[in-house]
C-alpha cells in the first residue's frame, strides 16, 4: 500500500508539500500540485480521511434528530437532506428520538463531544432552555418543528394556517362534530395546529371539545383504533382532522372494511403530509401537502453556511407555502347550505 512518503518520492517533492496538497492548504504552486496529484493517481494513493478530519477538528457529518423514520414524511425528508448534504461533501446520520426527552438530549451530546459538526432538529420534545446551551458547541437548525422563542434559524410551513384551512373545509362539508386527532407529546408545532383547528371552529360558532380529542394516534394501527373509539364512544362525530395520513388511512380502512361505513358521508376525514398512502386509499385522502424537498434543501444549506461562516450569519426564519389537496375522503354528496 502506497504511503505519503512514496508520493513525495515519485513527485520529487517534500512530504510537507504533499501534506499541504492533501489537506487543500495554500502556498503550493499549480505545477507542484499537479505533480503530486499525478503521483497519487499513479500509486493509487488514497488519503486517510479520518486523520484529515481529526487534524481539522471537523467530522463533515450532520446529525438529524426526528421522532421515527418509519413515518414516510421523515423518510422523504432524510432522503432529500442526504442528497443535498452530499453535494457539499457532508454525510448525514439519523437519530430517532421516539419522542423521548432523554434520547433527544443524548443525541445532542454528539455536538458537545465533537462527533458531528451540526444538528438539524426535525422534532423537539424538550424545552428550548434545555437545548439552547448546546449552541455553544455548534450550530443547530430547526426544520419542520419550530419554536417562536428560539434563537436559531427555522425552516417550516405555517402549521396553524394549514390546520385552519383543513378544518374550514370540513365545516364547509357540513361537519359539526369534528374530532381532533394527534399523537405524541404536545410540541410547539402541534400547539400551532390545535390553534388553527380551534380558530376555524370559532368562526362557525363552535368551540374545541376535549371529549372529541384523541392525542395518542401516530400510525395506521392507531388509526384503526381511532375508528372503533369513534364508533363505540363518539357516534355523533361526523368529521375527523388527523395529523397524519397514516392515521387517516387506518381509520378509513377500518371504517369501510369492518363496519361498511361510507366515507365521507358517514365520516369525513382529513390527513396531513400528502404521503403516497393518501393517494392509494379508497377513497383517496384529503390532506395537506408540505414542500418537503424545498425545506430539506434550504435547511442543509442554512446549516452548512453556518459551519462555513461561524458566528457571522444571523438566524433567519423561512416559512414555505402548503397546499390543501381536496380528495374523496371529504367530498360529500350532500353539502349543507352555506
Automatic annotation (TrEMBL):
<dbReference type="InterPro" id="IPR001761">
    <property type="entry name" value="Peripla_BP/Lac1_sug-bd_dom"/>
</dbReference>
<keyword id="KW-0805">Transcription regulation</keyword>
<feature type="domain" description="HTH lacI-type">
    <location>
        <begin position="2"/>
        <end position="56"/>
    </location>
</feature>
<dbReference type="Pfam" id="PF00356">
    <property type="entry name" value="LacI"/>
</dbReference>
<keyword id="KW-0238">DNA-binding</keyword>
<dbReference type="InterPro" id="IPR010982">
    <property type="entry name" value="Lambda_DNA-bd_dom_sf"/>
</dbReference>
<protein>
    <submittedName>
        <fullName>DNA-binding transcriptional regulator, LacI/PurR family</fullName>
    </submittedName>
</protein>
<dbReference type="GO" id="GO:0003700">
    <property type="term" value="F:DNA-binding transcription factor activity"/>
</dbReference>
<dbReference type="InterPro" id="IPR028082">
    <property type="entry name" value="Peripla_BP_I"/>
</dbReference>
<dbReference type="GO" id="GO:0000976">
    <property type="term" value="F:transcription cis-regulatory region binding"/>
</dbReference>
<dbReference type="InterPro" id="IPR000843">
    <property type="entry name" value="HTH_LacI"/>
</dbReference>
<keyword id="KW-0804">Transcription</keyword>
<dbReference type="Pfam" id="PF00532">
    <property type="entry name" value="Peripla_BP_1"/>
</dbReference>
